[in-house]
Every structure is written in C-alpha cells, then in structure tokens.
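Late entry, written up from scratch paper. The run itself happened at the end of the previous shift, but nothing got recorded in the book at the time, so transcribing now.
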Amino acid sequence: MPATATARPALATVTSVPTQIPLPTSTAAPSISVVVLSAQLSATVAAQLPPTSTPDTSGMAFGGFSGVNVLPLKTANGQPPLWAAFTYGMRSFDPQQNHFVSIFTHTETGWQQLSRLDLEAPDYIDPDSIQQVAIDPAHIWLEVQSGVGAHGGCYDLLMFDGSVLTDTVQNCSSSPGAGSVVDVNGDGQLDVVLDQTDAYVFCYACGVRFPGFAVMRWDGQRWVEVQLTLLPDSAPAELRQSINHAVELAQAGLWKEALAAVDQAAALNAPDETANWDAALIRLQVKALQDQIDNQAYPLLDNLFYGDYPAALNVMRAYSPEQLFGPDTPLITGTVAEGWADSVTYWVTSTTTSALKVQPDLAAGYFLQGWGLHLADPTSADAVADIEKAAQLDPNEPLYSQSLAYLKK
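Output as recorded:
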C-alpha cells in the first residue's frame, strides 16, 4: 500500500520470530509497592549508565541519555511481575550509544534482568515513548515511538516471549509517527500500520506529501504484510466484480473511484476476508489522501494523487491557456511548487501514466500529462499530441480545445 506508479525504497523491516514460552497479558492495577519498586529499578539502571556531557543552554543533553524510565507491565495471573526499563533523551554520537530496553523481574534476592535489547535507529526517545500494547495474550508487546535526525521518526514493536526480547517490526519515516497499532479491518485484532509517506514531493517544509502505508497482520507466529489482492473466480460474481474493479482502480491511483467501488461491494453484505481487507486498505489510503487535500498545500497534485481528475481540472480552469502554458504559469510561480517544476512534471506524468493504462479514454489524464510535459519542455511535440488527444476524446470541454488552439498558434 499504496500501489502507484512511483517506486520508493521499503523502509519497513519485519523479523519473523518463533513462538516460544507463552506469557499472557493482564493483571490488577499497580499497587504502591510497584511504584516504589519502579523508582528503585530506574535508579539502579540509571546508575549504570555512562556519564553524560553537560547539557547545552536549551536543556537538551546531546551528550548522552537523560535518564531511565520504568514501565510496570501487565502480566497474567500467576505470572511474576515484570518491568520494562528503557533509556530516554538524546543519545550520544561520540562515543556512539544506542538506546536500550530491558525486561526485569524482582525476587527475594533483588532485581533480575531477563533480557536486554539495543535499539539501533532511535536518536531521541521521550520518557513516554514506550507503551505496552495488546497484540495477543501469548506475549508481552512494547511499542516504541522515537525520533531520528532533524524531524524523522522511527517505530519499533518489541515482543517478549518469556525469555527473549525481540524487535519484530521496524520502520523509519521522514516525519514523526512512523507506525502505530490499529485494528485496520475491524476484526478485533490489532494490526500494525507503518507510515511510508513521501514527505519530499518538493521540500519537507513545502507540506506536499504523497501518503503511503504498509499494513502488517499477526498470524500467531509472525507479521505478514497485507496487500491489495484480487478475488478468485470462486468468490461470488457480483462481489468479485466490485472488489476486483476497486483493486484495479487503486493500483492505478484512482482512489476516489476505488472508494466508490468498495462502497458498492459493502452494500452486498457478502462476508469475505480478502474483500474486507481490500476495502480496509483502500479506505486507509483514501483517508490520508483526503486529509492531504484538506491541507490545501498544492491542490493540483493533492487532487491528482487522489485520482480526482475533475477537481484537478477545476484548479486549472481558473486560468487562461496563455497562463497555463506560459513561462510564468501561476500554477508554479508564487506557489510552493516554485523552484520545483521538474518535480511537478515527474509527479504529474507518472500519476497520469498509471491512470491511462486502466482508463485509456480519460481525456483529463491526457490533458494533465500534456501540461506536465510542456512544463518541462515548451517545444515538446508529445505535449501537443496529448492535448490534442484530450480534445478529441472530449470535444465539448473548452479548456482542451482552447489550449490546443493556443499551442498550435
């Protein structure tokens, strides 16, 4: 997710892990003794940390960890109490330090460390960055939200099986919030949503983003990525037709029409696990695309990414052909796209190319593709041919015919 014409490097890493000693999750609320023990453990682990450099004037200790936080863990009745201890603050880079998470238990002889895991990616961890989540009752799960670089984020999902703490899912993103646990398809089981949004359509501060996600489901032994999947011939014919059409549209970047197709399938009330997943993945992507449109960062591309070609054309209709195809088009000059014309051409042409493969009679697709090619090269014969194709497919659209006349002057 999403299936588009743009290939991006996969940021997510998923580690397959064997099922080991089960450790269910649930217990009563912590008592005051747990609070006291947590404070003792924090002080004990913090005392073992290397000394840190003097904090700068902002109060941020860039020379080493700020401290150790402790999270009492929920365990099953009859299981010994457990605590997670983890470093927080900004790690040191000289010498290099990694944040870590340790699992402890407390016995009559004192604290016993059961497992420790170094986290390689995070630069910064907040005191509240690590929380316990309920994936399944057989393991303890810890969700780690962290910062990396100037404004990036990383996500780790740790699993403790009773003896070993393992990092089962890892993902880093150019923005904070690189992952989360969500019941994506409404089956009552938490899934993992990894953010793979491209925040650099232009520049990071420009605010124009191309949303994308990877969704993982837990099959009891490992995390498995869920992708858009066509229904087999054995599926009910009407459901298969609607869902497969939705998948085809989504894979072409025509998300608005894909949403309409899954809504049509939902009205059939025909339970099918694959169909439910396809609908959930499409709705997840659509929600992010709609949010991007609401931000109004750059409406032309925002609507194009959504596959809403009429809305994209409405952006262009505000201008004459001379303005649209002139050297200082207001679709670039004075917008966040100024200085990024090559990027606009790339995103417009790559997006329309995918759409035209599925809808070869999409007049708006040819017009936008021609405009993008002309933006890169005002002498492009291919650009004129695309505008002419749009005018042939929809001779009643004045934007096409008037633009063609202007270009053929």
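The chain has three domains: 13-173, 237-295, 299-407.
(Scratch paper discarded after transcription.)
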